[in-house]
Write a structure and sequence with these properties.
Helix content of chain A: 10-25%
Shape of chain A: globular
Largest interface: A-B, 32 and 32 residues
Number of strands of chain A: 14
Strand content of chain A: 25-35%
Oligomer: homodimer
Radius of gyration of chain A: 16 Å
Number of helices of chain A: 3
Largest sheet of chain A: 6 strands, antiparallel
Chain lengths: 212, 212
């Protein structure tokens, strides 16, 4: 059985829209796969995963890249938990490798850093809300895997985010290696920050998620 | 007042040796500085910091590099907490920039990954022990700042660790911007892994720490 954020059971292959700037939780049993698509393209998908039996064990980008020895998630990679156990396999990359594992999830303070005044939706709040909706208060916002996000580390260590060139209809598929709760956030970043575009120039858009 | 791991008050400028493969906690009031030295050179210093009034707020490398826009800690940088508040300033770099913020703290499972059998000391255990010694059970091993550690991200995203070339007597000094508990671990990594040397070929060595 699996469910989406509304606590309703999803029908197999049902497609769920994660609206722009919002997040949703999905449960996968070991062996099931989740597909995340950016229909309009250039929309960052912040992706979190927790052991469904123990949400204290979460997907850790930092523990993954010291094992894959690459800061990019690549098709075929196993994504590890903070206890270095395989949680998901990156089954199919339909986005030509344009992904990131290094940008911390945006939060209210990130938007204020860039000069925003007042409340702003964020991937951190989306995560907290999606988890509360299914009964979990989490204490830590893990480093997400940011699919459809264009970053690079230059030779001097500079961390940059070039324009997002991910084509409409790009997708990724991940296979669960244990029972997991996944949270997908359609990153709300929409500030006109020079050199840090993250999403499309036309603003955040929806993601489409299915569990097979 | 400040103390080291033995709960004794340190005298100002007193130098404390962190033995090879071990860790120690140090308390700094805002405005105080901590200096960490590798007397023999090429010894990774895993560095963690917690808000002394709330150890649920910790130094986050991931939140730091999206603000400094560089994956290396550099002299003059402010190191941020996971709530994006400035915790420490990197006051003086006496190691020519050879530092890392991306290698997750080693733990028992990391040594097993590289084929080690039986227990192995690790920076994660050193952190847990140093914090317990002063009364704290922590739930999360944060991403450390790894001083005197040589890593690079190549153009294709490969994450590599070239030989450690940090000279004997190299040091770093960090100034506390809030009251903090710092933990310094003399990384126990000593496996002969091709392309992943971390410490000196001759094995882990001690670090010397002082609080001013």
């Amino acid at each position: 059985m699996f469910w989406n954020c509304n606590r309703k059971h999803m029908k197999p292959m049902e497609k769920v829209t994660v609206p722009a700037k919002q997040g949703r939780a999905f449960r996968l049993n070991a062996g099931q796969s989740i597909t995340i698509e950016t229909p309009k393209g250039s929309q960052a998908a912040d992706f979190f995963a927790f052991n469904a039996e123990n949400v204290g064990e979460w997907l850790s980008a930092n523990h993954t890249w010291v094992t894959t020895f690459n800061v990019k998630p690549r098709q075929g990679d196993q994504l590890l938990s903070r206890f270095r156990r395989p949680m998901l396999e990156f089954e199919k990359d339909g986005a030509e490798g344009t992904h990131d594992m290094m940008i911390a999830a945006c939060d209210q303070f990130r938007y204020e850093f860039f000069g925003h005044e007042g409340h702003h939706p964020s991937c951190s709040e989306n995560l907290h809300l999606a988890m509360r909706r299914i009964g979990y208060q989490i204490d830590v916002v893990p480093q997400p895997v940011n699919f459809f996000t264009n970053t690079a580390v230059l030779e001097d260590g500079s961390f940059v985010s070039p324009p997002n060139t991910v084509a409409p209809g790009s997708f990724v598929t991940l296979k669960a290696l244990m029972d997991v709760i996944c949270v997908v956030s359609a990153c709300p970043f929409d500030l006109p920050v020079d050199g840090w575009p993250i999403n499309s120039d036309s603003g955040p858009s929806e993601l489409v998620v299915s569990v097979q």
